[in-house]
Automatic annotation (TrEMBL):
This is Cytochrome P450. Belongs to the cytochrome P450 family. InterPro entries: Cyt_P450, Cyt_P450_B, Cyt_P450_CS, Cyt_P450_sf. Gene3D superfamilies: Cytochrome P450.
Length: 409
């Protein structure tokens, strides 16, 4: 008789937040497309092998938009009823992405680099003044992404702290109740509606104003889509990058000579950053749920219409058929086709911005702190859990300040 497939509970729990759950390797080997139940009771197919994950990302018969229906399987409650680009299918996705893509081209993001570098230098400078030890989360990993995405969108500086708590609640798996999540969504949307009205009266040189003008002049997008895009950018542009900065630094300091090597040769940073992104566990390791609109073959399983699929990015990035010694952090890994930013038409719009922020932060830390290390034992760190992006609540560093900055600390 054929063996009945096992049923798993997802998300899995890891022995350490920097390591992938052991279940990923076991599933890749024995059951790469497996049944699982989410905390909200929804059932999904987990996809863990690299090629299968890319198939899920690229196959148009696996719909993101279908998860917005009430009662549809989803991992985050905020997807319900959303008009976000994050949960759109073509042609609506294509139309909205075309409207905003120019703001996220490599050329446009490179124009932001000097300002990002200025901010990073100021923030690391304040950490230097107050430490060591200095809390990277408080001084850099949290304020830098907030400031950058808010300046890009056009959110006034005085309001940036207002939405921080809302967005943290919105990204909860299990840390907050559905009622708390709905309340946070409502408050953020109310704030954005007021901000859009302000931009209409007082246009500025920012992305939100451009979208308001597209709505008013060209009827290129609806008010609902405009608000959803602003919400998506604030949530993803802040939390994802903040967590990636924290994980990158933690993974670097776990290797005795990594910081010294990069400090001596900062030109190695772009290659190192791709490996840090592949290796990272910051984002919970899953792409958005998709729902089959037709029968779709993934691996050895045929996904039936109406069934949900969850691609496991962190598992795909540890697939030994693609990456040699995948559980080794190799900062010299030249061939690195990771899927940390997804694949296909939904490849992350802010990928280049995230890369630049990570590169600038690490370059600034290496230049101004010299060789730095964790100021506490790794097991002493407290972590934010139950949310889409896991990171330490604080990340205290000690350092040896370079000769350019003054005496050693």
């Amino acid at each position: 008789m054929p063996r009945e497939p096992a049923e798993f509970t997802f998300p899995f729990h890891s022995s350490h937040p920097l390591d992938p759950p052991a279940e990923y390797a076991a599933l890749r080997a024995d059951e790469p497309v497996a049944r699982a139940t989410l905390p909200n009771g929804h059932r999904v197919w987990l996809v863990t092998r690299y090629e299968d994950v890319r198939t899920v990302f690229a196959d148009g018969r696996l719909s993101r938009q279908a998860i917005t229906a009430p009662g549809a399987p989803k991992i985050l409650p905020i997807a319900t009823g959303s008009k976000s680009i994050f949960v759109m299918d073509p042609p609506e996705h294509t139309r909205l992405r075309r409207l905003v893509a120019n703001a996220f081209t490599t050329r446009q993001i490179e124009r932001l680099r000097p300002r990002i570098a200025e901010l990073a230098d100021q923030m690391v400078g304040r950490m230097l003044e107050q430490g060591p030890p200095g809390d990277l989360i408080e001084h850099v990993a949290e304020p830098l992404p907030i400031t950058v995405i808010c300046q890009l969108l056009g959110v006034p500086e005085r309001d940036r702290a207002v939405f921080r708590d809302w967005t943290e609640v919105m990204l909860s798996f299990t840390a907050h109740t559905p009622e708390q999540i709905r309340s946070a969504v409502g408050q953020l949307r109310g704030y954005l509606a007021e901000l859009v009205a302000h931009k209409q009266r007082n246009p500025a040189d920012d992305l939100l104003t451009s979208l308001v003008e597209a709505r008013d002049e060209d009827d290129a997008l609806s008010t609902e889509e405009l608000l959803a895009f602003g919400q998506t950018m604030l949530v993803a542009g802040y939390h994802a990058t903040s967590a990636e900065i924290a994980h990158a630094v933690l993974n670097l300091v776990s290797m005795p000579d990594a910081v010294a090597r990069l400090a001596a040769d900062p030109a190695r940073l772009p290659v190192a950053i791709e490996e840090l992104l592949r290796y990272s566990q910051a984002g919970g390791g899953v792409g958005p749920v998709r729902i089959a609109t037709e029968p779709v073959r993934v691996g050895d399983v045929t996904i039936q219409p109406g069934e949900a699929v969850l691609p496991c990015i962190n598992s795909a990035n540890r697939d030994d058929t693609v990456f040699a010694q995948p559980d080794r952090l190799d900062l010299d890994r030249e061939r690195n086709p990771h899927v940390a930013f997804g694949h296909g038409v939904h490849h992350c719009l802010g990928a280049q911005l995230g890369r630049v922020e990570l590169q600038v932060v690490l370059e600034t830390l290496l230049r101004r702190l010299g060789e730095f290390s964790l100021a506490v034992e790794p097991q002493e760190l407290a972590w934010r859990t139950g949310t889409a992006f896991a990171r330490p609540l604080s990340l205290p560093l000690r350092w040896r300040v370079s000769t350019k900055e003054g005496a050693a600390c």
